[in-house]
TrEMBL record:
Protein name, per record: DegV family protein
Annotated PANTHER family: DEGV DOMAIN-CONTAINING PROTEIN DR_1986-RELATED, FATTY ACID-BINDING PROTEIN TM_1468
InterPro entries, A to Z: DegV (IPR003797), DegV_C (IPR043168), DegV_domain_contain (IPR050270)
Superkingdom of source: Bacteria
Keywords: Lipid-binding
Pfam family, one: DegV
PROSITE patterns in alphabetical order: DEGV
Organism: Parafannyhessea umbonata
GO function term, MF aspect, one: lipid binding
Record Gene3D superfamilies: 3.30.1180.10, 3.40.50.10170
Length: 290
């Protein structure tokens, strides 16, 4: 427990590394993965990304956010464990109702101050915001300053990703028909990012998978030039893990001011929407004044 007794809570869609969560007692609320036969699993708890991938051949499941009861139980447990306040950090509210639900539950908690942060991002980059929250709390940043500071961190964090097939994102309602049609013509691979509100949008287009990966590296390098030092991340799905070394090598060659490159495996709940063939990159300003 940190000295401020501020619990840091997130959802599984942020792909915050499990080892980091264990070391810093970050509480993770799993999103749910639901199959047509009525079975429901908790992402990362009783179903893995590899298991979801194996079952995609027969069914693409649905996902659902943590229930209000689940969020309340997590907060009550944190209080029972000795925490006196909490910060909840979620994936983009534009992509999931988890943030809005967390706000609702937080408003019902008595004598337990809570702030809810919208990363306006997804996956590994949202997880990088979680890591910054932990660093701030452990460094003694006052609770009253965390909201504005973490909003600033979110604004200086960017995600880029590409998939070999847009079918999963389209069928899951995560992208519109315009983006889907572009990606279905002449092997065009849109590089997707989150806009200022957290919605998916096209950052750039490339023809073919290999060019899409190189384009992502260029986009990260362009963003990185805005900062003195940067933290980078690479995310791969269960079938693209063999790309980790090559992508990290390309990023380090293209971004001279890199401080670190993290590797994040895609969570089971996000894989439902991206499909099994996905690669992503993240960039974040490493210059933070605590």
């Amino acid at each position: 427990m940190n000295n401020q007794r501020i619990a840091v809570i997130t959802d599984s869609g942020t792909d915050t590394p499990s080892e980091f969560c264990r070391e810093h007692d970050v509480r993770v609320m799993p999103l749910h993965i639901n199959y047509a036969d009525g079975t429901t699993f908790q992402s990362g708890v009783d179903i893995t990304a590899d298991e979801v991938t194996r079952r995609l051949a027969t069914e693409v499941p649905k996902t659902s956010l943590p229930s209000p009861h689940q969020i309340q139980t997590t907060l009550e447990q944190a209080r029972a464990d000795g925490y006196q306040k909490a910060v909840i950090i979620t994936i983009a509210s534009a992509l999931s109702a988890t943030n809005q639900t967390a706000h609702m539950v937080a408003g019902q908690m008595e004598d337990f101050p809570i702030i809810v942060v919208d990363t306006r991002s997804i996956g590994m980059v949202a997880g990088m915001v979680v890591e910054r929250a932990v660093q701030m709390v452990e460094a003694g940043v006052p609770f009253e300053q965390l909201q504005s500071r973490l909003d600033s961190v979110a604004q200086q964090s960017n995600v880029f990703f590409a998939v070999k097939s847009l079918d999963f994102l389209y069928k899951g309602g995560r992208i519109n028909g315009h983006i889907y049609r572009i990606g279905s013509v002449l092997n065009i691979k849109p590089i997707l990012t989150c806009d200022d509100e957290g919605y998916y949008t096209i950052a750039k287009k490339a023809r073919g998978w290999d060019r899409a990966l190189d384009t992502m590296v260029s986009l990260v390098a362009e963003k990185a030039r805005q900062y003195k030092r940067t933290r980078l991340a690479v995310c791969c799905s269960s079938t693209t893990r063999d790309l980790y070394d090559a992508l990290e090598q390309k990023l380090r060659a293209a971004v001279p001011n890199v401080e670190s490159v993290q590797r994040h495996d895609l969570s089971a709940d996000l894989l439902v929407h991206t499909g099994p063939e996905m690669a992503g990159m993240g960039v974040q300003n490493a210059e933070l004044d605590f």
